[in-house]
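Hi team,

As requested, here is the filled-out complex form for the calcium ion run. I kept the field names the same as last time so the parser does not choke. Let me know if anything looks off before we queue the next batch.

— J.
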Amino acid sequence: MRVLIVEDNEAIARDIGAHLEQAGYVVDYAHDGEEADFKGFTEDYDAVILDLGLPKLDGLTVLRNWRAQGRTFPVLVLTARGSWQERVAGIDAGGDDYVVKPFEMEEVLARLRAIIRRSRGLAAPIIRIGPLELDTRAARAILGGKALDLTPLEYRLLSYLAHHQGRAVPRMELMEHIYEGDADRNPNTLDVLVGRLRRKIGSGFIHTRRGHGYMLVNPEAEG
Ligand code: CA
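And here is what came back:
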């Protein structure tokens, strides 16, 4: 899952970013409204955390621009304490939820998980694929009741596929959503990673669709 953090306060941005990375997300940053506007149009994010008070272009304008141009990624708005008007304006501009500053990081993470899963049509924090469970709160996978020992990258791969289960996800899309910005995006590297994950969860879950990509399925539901 790739998340854009839009926050001009460097300390707050780094703090959120560190927690997100620990929770299994890939993180990009924008430090003013113009940079946010540009990245929101050029990159495909799974969610955006958007501060409203930004230099160059304010957050509400950025959000309205995205929505007016059909950008539908879920947006978590950061608002100032006590300003109910700002919270209402954020939601009306196309925000999916908000967190009031100063916030607890656990609340940011919980609301972020919720808007991402709702954007994928998922209601619960645990995603079930037959005997495989993905606990998005703890960033871990459980198979037949036993926790799997996955690397952060393997978890990110599984999580992205689980949020898109039943759809063949193209290789390029997968790489954009699971690798850090400067990582080597080589399809062969991805295939090796998929192979490693298959060995850990069993070969029946991830299907290769030639020319289309990888698809996560429940092997027990296959007829
Ligand atoms: Ca700010």
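Two things worth flagging: The pocket of calcium ion is lined by residues 8-9, 51, 53-54 (CB under 6 Å). The mean pLDDT is 94.

Thanks,
J.
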